[in-house]
């Protein structure tokens, strides 16, 4: 993407090469391929560079709106400081309720907004339910036909629930949003193996 700068102000963004009039001159689209950077700059056209140092993963953070600035002969796209999403639930206070026109059934202490911990644990429970559903038929068959459940199946289901419990504990004990992000961040060791602090739910070996 390019920007047109006139009198040190960005006046237009150019998303793709096209012919355009600058001042009283009509320029063809091919100048974007044929002209040098300095030649484009000389008529006020600058390629936009991106500074993403403040941009963070939107799963964990709320980023500010992107902004564009012209300085030191460069047009830069950037973001301000990102705000971590709430890691814990927030609740209604009596002061909050006093400011509402209509309270309804709300009382102080009710959940106001769900934090990341609640969302992540809810997602984990859904993942576990999906994994266990693949072997639920063994349980149903045992109940209906008294057919023994293979030990490998029982071991797997127990391992899934045990890992679920430890993962939920790790999520619950995370002190803030960066700590939660760290739990889910994969790293690669010297052998090329990827892993994350939270670990993974067990899979059933075939």
Task: Outline the structure in words.
With 206 residues, the protein is an alpha+beta fold. The protein folds into 2 domains: 2-83, no CATH class; 115-195. The protein has 7 helices and 13 strands. The chain has helices at 31-34, 37-42, 94-98, 116-133, 136-145, 151-173, 177-184, and strands at 2-6, 9-14, 20-22, 25-27, 45-51, 61-62, 67-71, 74-78, 83-84, 90-91, 111-113, 187-188, 194-195. The strands form 5 sheets. Strands 2-1-5-8-7 form a 5-stranded mixed sheet. It has a two-stranded antiparallel sheet with strand order 3-4. Helix 4 runs antiparallel to helix 6 (151-173). The longest helix is centred in the C-terminal third of the chain and has 23 residues, at 151-173. It is elongated, with a radius of gyration of 28 Å. The protein starts with a strand and ends in an 11-residue tail after the last strand. The mean pLDDT is 94.
What order do the helices and strands come in, and which of them pair?
Blueprint: E1 2-6, E2 9-14, E3 20-22, E4 25-27, H1 31-34, H2 37-42, E5 45-51, E6 61-62, E7 67-71, E8 74-78, E9 83-84, E10 90-91, H3 94-98, E11 111-113, H4 116-133, H5 136-145, H6 151-173, H7 177-184, E12 187-188, E13 194-195
Parallel strand pairs: 5-8
Antiparallel strand pairs: 1-2, 1-5, 3-4, 6-9, 7-8, 10-11, 12-13
